Amino acid sequence: MSDAEMRQNLERARREGLEAIDAATDMASLEDARIKVLGRKAPLSRARSGLRDVPEEQRRELGRVANDVTAEINRAIAAKEKTFMATETAERWEREAIDVTLPGEAPPIATVHPLTKTIWDIVDVFVGLGYRVAEGPEVELSTYIFDALNMPPSHPARSSQATFFIKSSGEEVLLRSETSPVQIRTMESQEPPVYVVCPGRVYRRDTQDATHLSGFMQIEGLAVDEGVTMADLKGSLEHFAREIFGRSLEVRLRPHFFPFTEPSAELDVLCFKCRGSGCRMCKQEGWIEVLGCGMVDPHLLEWVGYDPARYSGFAFGMGVERICMLAHGVSDIRMLWDNDVRVLDQFKGGAT
Ligand code: DAH
After folding, report:
1. pTM for the structure as a whole
2. Which residue has a Cα nearest atom 6 of ligand 1?
3. Are residues 19 and 128 in the same domain?
4. Are 223 and 183 in contact, with CB atoms under 8 Å apart?
5. Does the N terminus or the C terminus of the chain have fewer Cβ atoms within 10 A?
6. Of 136, 130, 245, which is closest to residue 181 (Cα–Cα)?
């Protein structure tokens, strides 16, 4: 190959090489161009290998030209790379930019279930009076549900439609229909004085409607000590009712019957909506029934081995759903168990 041809080849390699690099539009195509222009089979490399056959005197000069071309091409690649890198960084910054001034997405915050909240609030009132929390089994023996609570085998409540029987041969096993058996279990397990509240689930064979469920919550209370009187019962329950329903509310005790208390009563509060004049809330009564209560029947004390001549006590039991519904104006008990988040959300942050 003549010197002139050699120079021409190198010049073409330079021109075409620079063109190819210039045509690259991104890092990937630049890399393709680099291989095409500087790779082993590229015209430039071929021209360089051709230098071997060039006579000594011209080889030096042509070698310098070849080096210049290579260097120029490398510079062009580096320059191009730099611009691509700058655009890519700018694009990535654009893509990944975070506007820290945008308001965040608030995660939905759950709330304590209204029934749980009601239990906490009621228990708090009694804990403030020195009571502790006691619990008992939901599956209970008839001894604790009936016999110990003054309902002998002939008592109508025993065969009542209201109780779920789990085992009716031999010793009967039932789902408890009230939390009152916890009174007996607590007294059996300790000596007086006893001051306990017992929250828990109870079960009844009731058809569900706006005021009935087959499973619901109760809170039982029991105070046994020396010299406990009906005045203590009234004072304690009045304090409870005012803490839950309103400080200035009047309460009254209405005579009633329960097998395990003597005398027995129901506690009413003056309707906190109409203050006694009669409205839908109190069914025109002016008063709202809140719970059942009474002086512990001495038979119960005897049953657990307490001396009824020395100790006396009062007890009470209330439906948690009922208290919750009254406090919040909920008209259908099922709303408290459906757990529709739209309903539950409405109880957020409120007191009982
Ligand atoms: N166990 C009763 C019920 O379920 C409520 C009750 C009334 C409990 C009077 C008591 C009480 O401890 O003394 O209706």
Report:
1. 0.72
2. 317
3. no
4. no
5. N
6. 136
